[in-house]
Amino acid sequence: MGLVRTANEDGWRVGGIAGDAPDGNWSGSLPSTRPWVLVADGMGGHGSGDVASSVALDALCRHFDRDGASDMRSAIAEANWAVFSAMDEAPGRRAMGTTVAGFRRAGGAVSVFNVGDSRVYLARDGGLSLLSVDDTMPRRAAGRSHALTQSLGGTSVPLALDPHVVSVEPVAGDVLLVCTDGLTDMLGEAEIVAGLLAGIANPAAALANAAVEAGGRDNVTVVVTEF
């Protein structure tokens, strides 16, 4: 939890493990066969953002469990439809929406994907590369726009999505960081890579705590995967 919002609309899944640890933290080894990491940030301005993020993550997990060989675009389209289907199940869910970002490994290659402004970074050889693409409106003033140009849900009728998908070949020592904007709005890339290279036991928790200590304007979800 950050310091401003009254509810946490973020969610995460790691290799099918639900993001329900009592203190919000989990660490362990991913399964060797088709592991995945997912992070979602429910849209707070639309209501039921926590429901949207949970529905999207559960739909992606079901898709990966059922058909690990299918492409990411079809998986995200299925999750998008699940969010829209859930809108009519209870009052207050109309136009609920969420971002999603993450990766899935199949063999040696890793498919990195995102819709919205949650991000995926690759840390390699002391540097940090942004692999995802922010789906946000341009902003003339200083700072980053938070107006999304696409999301899962987020509108009253389904719209076609154009997910960002890129393939990378990880090498030993690589680190993939998947996070919500609660991290990247509070910490710069130099601070993030310094946290990843500090050699501490749980860099994800350390980065999340640092974002809260820096002001915590939003909730923070961070998943760090070391190869």
UniProtKB/TrEMBL annotation:
Residues 27-227 form the PPM-type phosphatase domain. GO terms for molecular function: protein serine/threonine phosphatase activity. It comes from the Bacteria. SMART domains: PP2C_SIG, PP2Cc. Transmembrane segments: none annotated. This is Protein phosphatase 2C domain-containing protein. It comes from Acidiphilium acidophilum. The lineage of its organism: Bacteria, Pseudomonadati, Pseudomonadota, Alphaproteobacteria, Acetobacterales.
